[in-house]
Amino acid sequence: MGMKKERLQVLIDTEDRKNPYTDEALAKKLSISRGETTLLRQKLKIPDSRERRKPILCETIRQILESNPGISKRGVTGQLQQMGFSVSRFTIEQLLSNALYSMEEIKSAVSSPNIGTDVESGGKEFISTAFDNLIGQKGSLFPIIEQAKAAILYPPKGLHTLLLGATGVGKSDLAEAMYRFAVDSGRLNIKAPFVVFNCADYADNPQLLLSQLCGHMKGAFTGAERSKEGLIEKADGGILFLDEVHRLPPEGQEILFYLIDKGKFRRMGETESLRQVAVMLIMATTEVQSAALLATFRRRVPMVIELPSLQERPLQERLALIHYFLKHEAQRTGNSLNIDADALKSLLLYDCSSNIGQLSADIQVACARGFLNLITSGSKTLYITVSNLPAHARRGLLKLQHQRDKIEKLRITSCEILPGKENMVYVDELYSVPREIYSYIEEQYGKLSMQGVSQEEINRIIGSELEAKLWKWIKRANDSPEPIVKADLYKVVDKAIVDIVEAMIEKAADILIRPSEQIVVGLSIHLTETLKRIKQNKRIINPHLEKTKYEYAREFAIAREMAECFLGQTGVRLPEEEIGFITLYLTMYCRQDADGRVGILVLSHGHVAAGMAEVANRLLGANHAKAVEMSLDESSETALERTIEIVMQINEGKGVLLLVDMGSLANFGSQITAITGIPIRSVGPVYTMMVIEAVRRALLPDTELDELAEMLGQPYLSAENLSTELLQNDVSFNKSKSAILTICITGKGAAMQLQKEVERQIGRQQGQIEIICMGLADRQTFANEVRKIMKTHSIKAVVGTLDPGLPGVPFITVDQIVKGKIASILQCAPSRRTTVAEVIQEELIFYPNPEWSKPQVIDLLTQSLLSRDLVKPEFATDVVKRELIGVPILSLRVAIPHGEDPRYVNQTSVALAIFPEAIPWGENYRVNVVCLFAAATDGRELVQELGGKLTNDEIVDCLIEARTPAEAKRILVQGENK
Known about the structure:
Layout (H helix, E strand, L loop, with lengths): L1 H13 L8 H8 L3 H10 L5 H19 L5 H10 L6 H9 L16 H4 L24 H12 L7 E4 L6 H14 L9 E5 L7 H9 E2 L11 E2 L1 H4 L4 E5 L6 H13 L1 E2 L9 E2 L3 E6 L3 H4 L2 H5 L3 E4 L8 H19 L2 E4 L1 H9 L5 H23 L3 E4 L6 H4 L9 H7 L4 E3 L6 E3 L5 H19 L4 H25 L6 H7 L2 H12 L9 H20 L9 H7 L1 H18 L5 H15 L8 E7 L3 H12 L4 E6 L5 H15 L5 E5 L7 H9 L3 E4 L4 H11 L6 H9 L6 H8 L9 E8 L5 H13 L6 E7 L3 H14 E8 L10 E3 H5 L3 H7 L7 H4 L5 E2 L7 H14 L6 H12 L3 E3 L2 E2 L13 E12 L5 E9 L5 H11 L2 H9 L3 H9 L5
Parallel strand pairs: 1-8, 1-9, 2-5, 5-8, 10-11, 14-15, 14-16, 16-17, 18-19, 18-20, 20-21, 22-25, 24-26
Antiparallel strand pairs: 3-4, 6-7, 10-12, 12-13, 23-24, 25-26
Helix pairs in contact: 2-3, 5-6, 8-9, 15-16, 15-17, 20-21, 20-24, 21-27, 23-24, 23-26, 24-27, 26-27, 28-31, 39-40, 42-43
GO cellular component, one term: membrane
Pfam family, one: EIIA-man
Organism: Pelosinus fermentans B4
C-alpha cells in the first residue's frame, strides 16, 4: 500500500495542471482498479481531477473575461481548448453559473504558500486567532477565510476587497476579523484604525454622504462653516469598512475608484491639491455587482469574496450557531437555559430569510418569552419550547419529515446550557426510540390503514421499519463516546425498574454479544411505557410477533423466561406481544453488523433526475434517492466519473439500483461494477412513480437489489445487453425475414387468437412476415426468445394484451387490431431512425402572443400534437405533472417541457413556441424558445440530437431572429447529414 501511495503522489505532482489525471487514468498507470484508486486518493486527501484543475482553469477564465468582457460561453470554451485545456462547454457553464467573479479564485491559489501557514512577508511565522470565532472556519467558510487572508497579506499593502452576500450572512464580522488578522500578521500597526461606515445612513442626502466620506473644505456648501476631516483620512494607515457600498451615488463610486487606483482623493470643495493616504478598503454589498455598481468601479476591486447564505451552509454549522447564541443568552441572563429537542429542530429547519442576523434575533425573542415565564413561575431555569419561538420559526417542524435523515445524523436532543460554562449538558440522548415505539406503531397503522393497505402488508412494512429503527438506535448507542451513567438513567426511569431489567438480562447473558448497558437502557424505558399502557388498559400491538416467534425461536424462549422474572418481581404478567418486543431487543444485541439498504440513484439527460428524486424523498419523508444529471454536451466519461463518486457514497453494502432514462446512461451499471466491485442493477426508462416505489421498497431492510430491480423492471426489459440489441433492431434491414410478435401471459389463448386476426389483416404480406406467439410470464425466458428471433428476423411490431416495452418496436393494442388498424400502423412504423428534418414540422412551430402565460403556451403546444394524433390524451397531464416537479430548462433561453411516460406518445414529435422578446417561465427564468418534446421509446437519440442544437448559442440566436416557421425549421435542420 505504501508503494502505491508514493507512486500516486508522484503522478499527481508531475501531472499536466491543465488536464490532471482522472481516477481512471491513474488506475491504468498504477495497474490497479478504479475503485482502489479512488479510495487511495481519498485517504491521501487529494482532491479529484476537477478540483485540482479548478484554480488554474478559473484564473485563465478570469484573464479571458477581462480581455474580452462580451465573450460568449462558447467563445470562452474555444479559447481554453486552444490553450491546451481539454474541457467541454458544460464544464465552463457550471463554473460561470456558480458566480465566478472576476478575481475570486486567484487568491485561494494566488498561491503564495505562505497563505495557508500564516507567515509574514518576511517569512516569520505568526499565530492569529482572528478568525477562530467564525463558526464554519474549517467548514463552509474555510475557502472564504483563505481568500480573506490572501487579501490582507498580498504585497505590498493588501488587496481592496468587496464582500458579497445577502443581509445577515456575516459580512461585518468577516471584515472585523480581517482587521484583527492584519494586526496579528504585522501588516497593520496595533494602533491602526478600523473605521466603519454604513453608506445607507445618508443615502437620501448624497452631499452629506460624500462629506462624511471625503470630508470638506470651509465654504464647500451651505453650512460648511469650517473644514472637516472625512472617514478616508481617519482610516489612513488602517482599514475603512464601507457597508452597503451600493448605496453610494455614482460620484462617490468614482471617488473610491480613484482612491483604489492612485491612493489619492480630494475633500469636497478642494480643487487644487490631492491628499495621499494609505488605506485598505473593505466594502460590503447585498446587491449583485452588475446591478448596482459602476463597471469602472467593479473592475478596480481586485478581490471579491462571496459569503454563503445560512440556507447554503451545512446543518451542523447552523446548529453550532444556535448553540453559540443560546450560550450568549444564558450568559446575559445569568440563568441556566434548557431548550427541548423540537425547538432546536425547528430553529434548524425554518426559512431564515435574513440569515444569521435573523436567527440571532429569533433566539433572543424565544429567550425573552422564556425569561418572562421564568419570572412569573419563580423557576431558576429558563425553559425554551416550540411555543416560545416566533410563529415563522415554529414552521420549521413542518419540514422535519423531509429532513429526518439529516436531523438523525446530528443526534438532536434537549440540552441545558449553564451560564459561564463552555460545554452543554445533553439529556434524553439515548431514551427517545424505546419510548416512542408504541406511538410509532399506532401512527403508522393509522397512515397505512387510510391508504387501504392489507393487514398482512401493514404488519410486514411496520415490522421491517421498526426493526430498522431499533437497529439504528442500537448502533448509535454503541457508537456513543459517552458512557452510560446510572444516575442519568434514574432521572428517566425508576431505579426499581432498572434493577428488575438487570435481573432479567442475566437470563440472556449467554447469547448477548454486546455491552449490556445499552440493552438495560432500552428495556428499562420500554418496560416503563409498557406498565403505563397496561395500567391504562391500552392495547399492545406487535406487528412483528409472528415473524419473531418462528424466526427467533431461541430468543423468544429466553424472552419468556425474562417475562416470568418480571412477573415474579412486579406481579404483572406481560402479554405475548410484549414478549415479542423483548425478543426483538435480544435479537438486535445478538446479531453482528448487518448490511444497510439498497441505494437508489436516478440518472437522466438534462434537468430531470433531481426533480424526481426530490419528489420521492419528500413524499416518503426520506433522503434516500440521489440524482445525477448529464448535460447534453457532457461527455460520458465525465458523467460516469461523477456517477461513480455518488455510488461509492451511497452504497450501504447491498448495492445500488440505477434508474435511468435513456442512451449511454443505461450502460453505466456494468462499467461501475467492473471499476468498483459494487453490485449495480439498471432499470428504465425512469418515471416519477417508479422512483417513489423504488425508494419505498429500498427503505425496508429486507429488500434485496435483484428483487427490487425485478419488481420495478416490469414491464420493461432492464437487461442492458438486450436493450442495446433491441435499440439496434431498426438497422436489421439485411435480415431475410420480418416478424410480428403476438403476446399474452402464457403465449397461448389470446396470443393465438391474435395471430389468426393479424394473419387475416396483413393478407398478401403473410409470406414475408412471420407471426410468432409468445408468453410474458417468465421474463428471462421471454428475453432469451427475443434474442433468438432477432438473429434471423427484424421485429416489426408487438401485438397483444401486455406491452413488454421493447425499445424501438411499436406496440399494437387489441383495440387497434379489432379496429383493423394494423396495416396502417405497420406502414407508418419507422424502418430507420427518424431525422430532425422529419420531426420538425412547420405547422408545429408557433409565434404566440407574448402576453400569454406559461400554462397557455404549454396547452397550445400539447393540443397541437394531440390534434394530429401524435400523442395520447394522457400526454397533456403527464407534461403538467413533470412541470410540477421542477422547471426543465435546457439553457437560460430555452425551456423543454416534456412528459415522462413514452406510452403516451404515438410518434416522436416536437412542437415549438418562439418569442423574440423573452417571457417569464417559472419563478426565476425568462425564455425565448419553448420546445415541447414528445419522445416515444425509439426517439431518445433524436431528442438528444435536437437538444444539442438548442444548446448552441449561435443556433438559438438565429432561431429567435427567425420570423416564419419555414425559416425556423431551416435553422434547426441546417447542416444535418441527410
